[in-house]
Amino acid sequence: MMAISNGTLVATSEDEENKLYQVYHWLQKEVHPTYLMTLAVGDFAEIKDDWHGKLVAYYVEKGRETDAKRTMSKTPQMMEFLSEKYGYTYAFPKYAQVCIDDFIFGGMENTSTTLLTDRCLLDEKAAIDNRKSESLVVHELAHQWFGDLVVIKHWSHAWIKEGMASYSEVMWTEHEYGSQAADYYRLEQARTYIAEDSSRYRRPMVTHVYREAIELYDRHIYQKGSCVYHMIRAELGEDLFWRAMAQFVNDNAHQTVETIDLLRAIEKATGRNLMFLFDQYVYRGGHPDFKVAYAWDGDANLAKVTVTQIMVTSDDKNNQSLFDLKIPIGLGYIDGTDLKVFTVRVNEKEQSFYFPLDKKPDFISFDVGNHYLKTVALEYPIPELKAQLINDRNPVSRIYAAQALAKKGGDKALKALSESLKNDDFWGVRVEVVKQLAEVKLDQVFDVLVEYLSDENAYVRRAVAQVLGKIKTNSSLEALKKLSQIGDDSYYVEAAALTSIGSIAATMGEDKHKEAEVLQLLENTLRSKSGWNEVVRNGAIAGLAELKTSQAALNIILDYTKLGVPQPLRLGAIRALGKISVGQNSVNLERILERLSKLSQETFFLTQIAVSSALGQMENKKAIAILRSLAEQTPDGRVRRNAQEQIDKVVQKTSSDGAINDLRSQLEEVKKQNQELRSRLESLEAKSN
């Protein structure tokens, strides 16, 4: 075996007493914190690369050398890119990446020697539509500056390093794949943070209020932190932003920092004080939620834009503390002329702005460039939304227009979205349009989407496979079954199809033949499709979990929770027990609870989190006792917090009585009937027109 550590390999020699052993001597000359010390020992294959004479090495399980090169070969280019952007040449004598199994993180940025999960290693098929591994590599490399060279003084300031590492993912995406891909990546980061803010908790990014430091490592410091760095960049402009980042790194290399040091470096480099931005987004919780309406006054040639803030910044949601921002509003035309941009101060609950124009604009772009972290609901007429969907140059603005059109529904919205799906030049917008088509709630959506199951872009095909699972008809089931039988170039598309097949079959409860057919298909997949990270077989497990009343589906899932099943698949099966539990009879519920209780006694972190997640999905008070036992016996603060949050979910679910569940079922039936009626009406109107 070989031993890999921080710094420079000074020497290797045989042990003087036992010639079977090899002695490795590593020396780390540069000062660094103890949490960045590492020692990785294994029977690794070593792949050597080079950057300006410094060793760049990749260590993986023997036999996976090709996967290692496919996954990490851009590392030297990334080192060049980040050295230039940060204004400070990579500081350490080598850079190694060691891929290990059973790792509970994606990566850990130990000084000069990053550890990565071996799940990031891509085979040829996985590389088709998986950029997460590339983002992971650049994220951990970015920490060699932000986190390792410049070290946080206290955990409460972790956003400084995690935010920049996450923003470096955006920067690299922009460098490698273009500005539209970067804008979409940043939108996904914003959504990830917003989901945590709305469903778990709201907190300032810098806070000393926590039970254990590891709790701070959440979506607020990673994804929101990335968005804050982008807002700083938008506020300062390209040149000043990078000048400020270089100032920060050079002033604080091999030292510890707090958030105030970043503010000081920005002011020193640019003369700008950005405390107003930090006050609103860093030291307080939340983000603005906007509603934007538009009207045209043809007599006065004035465009009226009304902006309403519908959310607050504080942790106390009764405290009506509004955001105060200068937001650019663009008025655009379909003839391709540049946007007419007006920057306005938005700082009240509701404000109306009037813009004099020579002629009526075709569309309105709120927050041109979409630089601010926010949510926005557009309340424009359909013609303006359609024009924006087709003509706005910013992909995020086009996505907002697609969302607003879908909410309006009807045949006009369907046609506008269909046109965008056919013609938009960016796959990310097309993916979002696919998702919004499902929200139109018309049967005709199937006819639009089904042809895109063979789209040339794997991300689009995956979205279609997912959305067809919401269109619960025999036609969508047959289309997805055909896809699963012939396969796809993408693991993820196949997995999405299998999950959707289960979801559709679950609504055909009276057709036991269909259910049996789907069970057979999913079980055959589990027997025959073992492959990269068990993505496809996890899709089948998720499909089985949709069959909530099926004992046969439950029996299959239980089999895959046993020891000896590949870890990614076993974890997926454990989580699936929670979902399938809600439709099972009392005897099967006891079987599920017994299995989860036994699994909760395992000590592996990822198993404990999967068990906690499964229990949190249950609608049975007995799950609470198992969660409490798990919280009491685990040494990991993250598991304790997760278990407590899941207890709260179970308490909330079990406080409802059977009457509420009956109402829920009745509501779903009414929605289904309403969609059928609307679809007929739209068809009749289309024919009459």
Uncertain spans: none
For the record, the CATH class of the domain at 1-145 is: Mainly Alpha
Radius of gyration: 27 Å
The helix tally amounts to: 26
CATH fold annotation of the domain at 1-145? Neutral Protease, domain 2
**What helical percentage do the residues reach?**
40-55%
Q: What is the count of β-strands?
A: 18
Q: Could you describe the 3D structure shown?
A:
The protein is α/β, with parallel strands linked by helices. Among the domains are: 1-145, Neutral Protease Domain 2 (Neutral Protease, domain 2); 149-286, Neutral Protease, domain 2 (Orthogonal Bundle); 288-408, Aminopeptidase N, middle-beta domain (Immunoglobulin-like). The strands form six sheets. A five-stranded mixed β-sheet has the order 5-6-7-9-8, covered by helices on one side. Helix 10 packs antiparallel against helix 11 (395-408), helix 10 packs parallel to helix 12 (410-423) and helix 20 (551-559) runs antiparallel to helix 21. It starts with a strand and ends with a helix. The model has no long low-confidence stretch (mean pLDDT 93).
